[in-house]
Automatic annotation (TrEMBL):
Pfam families: TPP_enzyme_C. Gene3D superfamilies: 3.40.50.970. This is 2-oxoglutarate ferredoxin oxidoreductase, beta subunit. It is an enzyme of class 1 (oxidoreductase). Residues 56-203 form the Thiamine pyrophosphate enzyme TPP-binding domain. Its EC number is 1.2.7.3. Keywords: Oxidoreductase. CDD domains: TPP_OGFOR (cd03375). It comes from the Bacteria. InterPro entries: 2-oxoacid:Fd_oxidoreductase, THDP-binding, TPP_enzyme_TPP-bd. One of its GO terms (biological process) is small molecule metabolic process. GO terms for molecular function: 2-oxoglutarate synthase activity; thiamine pyrophosphate binding.
Length: 280
């Protein structure tokens, strides 16, 4: 389906609220937001059928600009609010927007257990390897040796992979893209929103102001070009050794499996309890 950009802007943006946006020129958040809207448009969902929840950080501003049911919640707790929404009304399409720090540092425990429970949610995690809004501190995905405001002489901790963490924790669907691969992002988000179960889309993004500048990675265009050169598809990556994959970004679908869904299993428990006369 061809997605008309003008129709999307007219339909889905809150034109009279909080514009111009707060993101730095060249930030990848806008690319992700546009991809999300293209996916929702193709899914032909009404605005009342969609809930967007976010935490704190640059990505947390996204629901402010979009005309859906939205929640701008506390740091690291977007998934807990989203869980409450989904439990209250399982028919809603709930999408959670988070950054790498928001999702996997203060929100890491919630992230792991949302995947383990297989809640029927879509989590979009914009990973720019830094705390961009709060001053440029290192996050769980900041590479070893990288500089930040809290690692001015080089980061001494190893980064972990958000997508691989999601696979291990039990998510039903896990995918990764970069902001350079804009068309791939909305394809993966559409797949994630169609998936029954906990679906994660990690998007590797640039923060050329807080991260790129400190690590001599150039401006936004240079960082996106680097993503293009580093990216490799899942099928091609499967043919390479660990040494050959060093420094590469694997993009595409990393996991797609059918697992019991938490809300459906909970309904079964309620039904059994009712039949046995324990639920009054």
């Amino acid at each position: 389906m061809t997605v008309p950009a003008q129709a999307i802007r007219h339909e889905y943006l809150r034109h009279n609220k909080k514009f111009p946006h707060v993101w730095c020129p060249g930030c990848g958040n806008g690319i992700v937001m546009a991809a999300l809207l293209r996916a929702i448009y193709r899914l032909e969902l009404s605005k009342d059928e969609v809930v967007l929840a976010s935490g704190i950080g640059c990505s947390g501003r996204m629901p402010t600009y979009l005309d859906f049911n939205t929640l701008h919640t506390t740091h690291g707790r977007a998934l807990t609010f989203a869980t409450g929404v989904k439990l209250a009304n399982p028919a809603l399409n709930v999408v959670v927007i988070m950054g790498d720090g928001d999702a996997t540092a203060i929100g890491g425990n919630h992230f792991i257990h949302a995947a383990r429970r297989n809640l029927n949610l879509t989590a979009i995690i914009i990973n720019n390897s830094i705390y961009g809004m709060t001053g440029g501190q290192y996050s769980p995905t900041t590479p070893f040796g990288a500089r930040s405001t809290t690692s001015v002489y080089g980061h001494i901790e190893q980064a972990f992979s958000i997508a691989e963490l999601a696979v291990t924790a039990g998510a039903a669907f896990v995918a990764r893209s970069t902001v350079y691969h804009a068309d791939l992002i909305d394809q993966l988000i559409e797949q994630a929103m169609r998936k029954q179960g906990f679906a994660v889309v990690e998007v590797i993004s640039n923060c050329h102001v807080q991260y790129g500048r400190r690590n001599q990675l150039g401006d936004a265009v240079e960082m996106l070009t680097r993503f293009r050169d580093q990216a490799i598809t899942v099928s091609k990556a499967a043919k390479l050794s660990a040494e050959e994959l060093a420094g590469r970004i694997t993009i595409g679908v990393l996991a797609d499996r059918d697992l019991p869904i938490s809300t459906e299993e909970y309904d079964k428990v309620r039904q059994r309890a009712s039949e046995e006369g324990m639920l009054r």
